[in-house]
Design goal:
The chain is mainly alpha-helical and about 110 residues long. The protein is built from five helices and two strands; from the N terminus they run H-H-H-H-E-E-H. The chain has a two-stranded antiparallel ribbon with strand order 1-2.
């Protein structure tokens, strides 16, 4: 056990593969990690397709509503039990959301919306 702890504590620190700025070599690693985190977060937020996100949100609100369950899913055999969906009804809701996503993504990519 002592040997394992010794090996872990004496492991060399990992080197960064790419230096952010040569002049900031005296800064601590925590500043670089903070800068990297902000850059990654910014990249994630700029890659989101907000039109598709908004359409998908509206599709989910419609499909999860009681109106959709009572007027659409109730027409399918064994999809609704009382006012709740069964496993089959939940599967149909999820399939409808996926189909809505594919259609909305297609429409946004082809600049229909």
């Amino acid at each position: 056990m002592k040997h394992i702890i010794y090996n872990i504590t004496n492991m060399p620190r990992r080197k960064r593969s790419k230096k952010i700025d040569e002049s900031d070599s005296d800064d601590s690693d925590s500043d670089d990690e903070y800068s990297d985190l902000i850059k990654i977060g910014g990249d994630i937020l700029t890659d989101i397709n907000y039109k598709v996100l908004a359409i998908l949100f509206l599709i989910c609100i419609i499909i999860m509503s009681d109106v959709f369950i009572m007027h659409v899913l109730s027409k399918s055999k064994d999809a609704v039990s009382g006012t709740n969906t069964t496993t089959k009804g939940t599967f149909l809701q999820i399939a409808s959301i996926c189909l809505g996503y594919v259609v909305s993504d297609f429409m946004v990519k082809n600049k229909i919306i």
